[in-house]
Write a structure and sequence with these properties.
One of its GO terms (biological process) is methylation. Its cofactor is Mg(2+). Its main location: cytoplasm. It is found in: Cytoplasm. The structure is a single chain. The chain is of the alpha/beta class. It has a single domain, classed as Phosphoenolpyruvate-binding domains (TIM Barrel). The protein contains 10 helices and 8 strands. Strands 1-2-3-4-5-6-7-8 form an 8-stranded parallel barrel, surrounded by 6 helices. The chain is globular and about 50 Å long. The chain binds 5,10-methenyl-6,7,8-trihydrofolic acid (MHF), 3-methyl-2-oxobutanoic acid and magnesium ion.
Length: 253
């Protein structure tokens, strides 16, 4: 993606009230993330989230917003079987009010992304730490930190762009690799724990409001200190992303 464009700010969002607050504070993209399994349901993983959950929360967010782009995660088990299975669930998510769906996985998902995008459904790809594969990855760990895995991620990113992906999320990858991948693509990238050189940044809403329990990942910043209320904290996040102040060195790998 071209370097000198203003960075865009993304937050996860699960309901109508926050949709309006985030949009009014300048958030460009609302991501209805399957992280709702963690922050709304109290699960340790995103694996138990259902298509019905994602459809319900997409409808809530769509009712509260009128200009932000709404991207909804396809939940675990709703797209891995076949492109046809993915289309059936994606169509229900789009009907609920999302403009794009997000799919975790590298080149193995290229056929599915091509199937959806050629049939009118824009797709955001997601590589690096893909939380739906937590049991295979052995935890929520940094990805692409060896020469071989870095090359694989770069090749995945190129394959996903070629298959018709409109956007690419990179989660927990070294900042240097995220920069290289962003420069190698013509579609915008969205980073979380991927350094400052992606086209946009995303955080889980509850994390940036300092509400999440337990150990906080390195890439999280609480924007409540220094803000007089929630809308101001969100506006400060948007400003920090757009001016390149967030993420700082302490948030990257
Ligand atoms: N509230 C919340 N925030 C998230 O960012 C998030 C979710 N939930 N649920 C789905 C996934 C899971 N994610 C996670 C969860 C834990 C770490 C974590 O513990 N990271 C540590 C350890 C790194 C390591 O062991 O290498 C870190 O210091 O960043 C990172 C991402 C990101 N996503
Ligand atoms: C953190 C983002 C990228 C996500 O997938 C989610 O919130 O589920
Ligand atoms: Mg997700």
């Amino acid at each position: 993606m071209v370097e000198n464009r203003e960075k865009f700010a993304v937050l996860t969002c699960y309901d109508a009230t926050f949709a309006a607050v985030l949009e009014n504070a300048g958030v460009d993209v609302l991501l209805v993330g399957d992280s709702l399994g963690n922050v709304l349901h109290g699960s340790d993983t995103t694996l138990a989230v259902t298509p019905e959950d994602m459809i319900y929360h997409t409808r809530c967010v769509a009712h509260g917003s009128n200009k932000a782009l709404i991207i909804t995660d396809m939940p675990f088990g709703s797209y891995q079987i076949s492109p046809a299975q993915a289309f059936e669930h994606a169509a229900r998510i789009i009907a609920a009010g999302a403009q794009m769906v997000k799919i975790e996985g590298g080149r193995i998902m290229a056929d599915t992304i091509q199937f959806l995008s050629q049939r009118g459904i824009p797709v955001c790809a997601h590589i690096g730490l893909t939380p739906q594969s937590v049991h295979q990855l052995g935890g929520y760990k940094l990805q692409g930190n060896t020469e071989k895995s870095a090359k694989q991620l770069l090749d995945d990113a190129k394959a996903l762009e070629k298959s018709g992906a409109s956007l690419l999320v990179m989660e927990m990858v070294p900042a240097k690799l995220a920069k290289k991948i962003t420069q190698a693509l013509s579609i915008p990238t969205i980073g979380i724990g991927a350094g400052p050189d992606c086209s946009g940044q995303v955080l889980v809403l509850h994390d940036m409001l300092g509400l999440s329990q337990g150990k906080k990942p390195r890439f999280v910043k609480d924007f409540m200190p220094g803000a007089k209320n929630v809308p101001e904290a969100v506006a400060n996040y948007v400003q920090a992303v757009k001016t390149g102040q967030f993420p700082a060195k302490e948030h990257e790998f």
